[in-house]
Amino acid sequence: MHVAQKCARFWDNDMHQNKDLKRVA
After folding, report:
1. Where does the pLDDT of residue 1 fall: very low under 50, low under 70, confident under 90, or very high at 90 and above?
2. Is 10 left (phi over 0), alpha (psi -120 to 50) or beta?
3. How far is CA 1 from CA 5, 7, 13, 18, 25, in A?
4. Cα angle, residue 14 at apex, residues 6 and 25 outer, rounded to 5°
5. Distance set, CA 8 to CA 15, 18, 20, 24, 25 (Å)
6. How far is residue 20's CA from residue 6's CA, in Å, rounded to a whole number?
7. Any idea what the Cα angle at residue 20 is, between residues 18 and 25, rounded to 5°?
8. Is the torsion defined by CA of 14, 15, 17, 21 positive or negative?
9. Is the overall model pTM greater than 0.70, yes or no?
10. Which of 14, 24, 19 lies closest to 6, judged by CA?
11. In this structure, what DSSP letter does residue 5 have?
């Protein structure tokens, strides 16, 4: 369960970063 939570959190961060990158670009 903990690993899944960490993975989900990492994905969330990645998605947010992607949105930011797209906004800048």
Report:
1. low
2. alpha
3. 6, 10, 18, 26, 36
4. 170
5. 10, 15, 18, 24, 26
6. 21
7. 95
8. positive
9. no
10. 14
11. H
User: Each residue of 4-24: pLDDT tens digit?
Assistant: 888 788 888 888 787 877 777
Q: What burial class does residue 18 get, using C-beta atoms within 10 Å of its C-beta: 0-12 exposed, 13-18 middle, 19+ buried? A: exposed
Distance CA 19, CA 3 (A): 24
What is the token pair recorded at 12? 């969330």
